[in-house]
Amino acid sequence: MKNLFRSELFRARKDKVLLIGFIVSIGLVILSLFLTKILETMANNADESGAIGAMMTTSGIAAWSNGVSVMGNTAQMIAPIFITIFFVKEFNDRTIRNKLIIGYTRSQIFFTIILVHFIISLVYLFGASFVGLVFGTVLFGLGADFTLDLVGLLIFGFIIQFLLSYVLMGFCIIFSINKQSIALGIVLPIAIGFILSLIGSFAILGVSEGFTKVMSFTNCYQSLEFQNMTSLEDFILKSWVEVNEKRYAVPLNPLGRFLIVTPIVIVLELVIGYFRFKKIQFK
């Protein structure tokens, strides 16, 4: 399996599709930040500027957090497209079938795909987050004083945001390779990511107390929630939502809700994807 893993990583480093996707992801982060700055500059008064700031990323910390919100600076709906195209090509050119012929098992092939996909996804999102941090800080400021607590927040926050994002990215790659469809790899991330982002936005605005409490356990809500944190302590503090002058707390704390749902969802995706992969009839 080690040789197979090395071979896949080498192929990934040489693949132009992945390079183009990485550049597109970085470009969208920069474009989003500049558009936000332009909108803020064009605001007629402080109230309008504040409203824009509340809806969109206006600090280096928030840009680093790189949430899955459609309002945020994100590569999560773009990265799965190019990464999935890279992997699904192996099905169309019979590379997977040839790997089976030379002696690799389905388990080795599947987990090599997942491991390499995880690494490439990490590179994509770290690149987008780092560029967001730099440009966000230049255009809007860092968003907090630079301290050891802030460094911890950036590191811990990125790990959590990446795992939240991998709920979507993992589903897209697993579903697409099992269907052996590049088209699904293109459509799924955009459609699902956009829908989840809108739902998360409505939930965090507190449209309905019951709806918000249920959605607070989902990755779309939590990504928005973590994106606005400025201290490590925020992870273990109760979150409050206010609507129509009524203030209420969502269940548990942000870290607790994350630990209950996200690891379980990712493991279920991998398990279901693995058993479906074992049943594929390769031509």
How would you summarize what this structure contains?
This protein has 283 residues and is mainly alpha-helical.
Describe the protein's topology:
Layout: H1 2-14, H2 16-42, H3 46-55, H4 60-65, H5 79-92, H6 95-101, H7 106-140, H8 148-179, H9 182-204, H10 209-215, H11 219-227, E1 240-243, E2 246-249, H12 254-277
Antiparallel strand pairs: 1-2
Your description of this structure?
The protein is an all-alpha fold. The protein is built from twelve helices and two strands. A two-stranded antiparallel ribbon has the order 1-2. The radius of gyration is 20 Å and the shape is globular. 37% of the residues are buried. The mean pLDDT is 82.
Looking at how many chains there are and whether they match, the oligomeric state comes to single chain
Describe the global form. globular
Classify the helix fraction into a percent range: over 70%
In DSSP terms (H or I, runs of 4 or more residues), the helix count works out at: 12
Order of helices and strands: HHHHHHHHHHHEEH
Keywords:
283 residues, mainly alpha, two-stranded antiparallel sheet, 12 helices, 2 strands, globular
